[in-house]
Specification:
mainly alpha, Rossmann fold, three-stranded antiparallel beta sheet, two-stranded parallel ribbon, 11 helices, disordered N terminus
Length: about 260
Amino acid sequence: VWRKLEESVLKEEEPADAFEEFVGARTKAKRGFTLRELIERVEQLAEQAKVRRQTYDATSYEAIASKLERLEATGLFDKDRILSVDELLVPGRVSVIDVSDASDTVKNIVISWLLLKIFSAKLRNPRAPKTLFIIEEAHTFVSKEKAEAMRTTLDMLKTIARRGRKRWLSLCFISQQPGHLPTEIFELCNTRIVHRLMSEYNLRALRETTTGVAREVWRTVPGFHVGEALLASPQLPHPVLMKVRPAKTMRARLTELR
């Protein structure tokens, strides 16, 4: 959106000067601008283009304003308090960000923002605690069917996977429907823990992307009991059938935690 805005405002000298003045004044005053202010400024440029009968520019401005308004409708911007990454990067703490009721657009924005902020914090402070970023129900965040629309998120995940390991920032994807995950996700995962799966569609996705597991072993996966799993990793000479013990810590109800 920002790139399109820059390209369009620079086509005409007067709107470009007006927009640069709008941004520059706030930069010099060390004051940012809200998304609403940006939308209003773009709408002004659209009206100015209409007066000059520059139909193409007016249409471009209106399209940009419409996209910015959709971002505004998510409720993610211009809030009084922004979540501090320092509150998340605390040794021994588990932070849960619940976006189950959010739209796909909001989910992708949240993931991209969190990954970017955490990775930047790791770059600034190499002594930051080891961090595992877990994406549960991963197929609802980055799905094969919507891979192109989620390209920014996928690119961010690739960057974190390749550059984050030496900074002790790791990724974990959890999904009950791995068949709907993009192939890029499988390429990022070295270790696989496979619990019971009944669907041939989901099993096929794992078979085709996991090396060293015999077909006879895959046939046992649909018959796994609770806690049983197949562990495949480059760190192991061969796949291992495992049984996960019940948690030793007490399970508290959500109301008790509050």
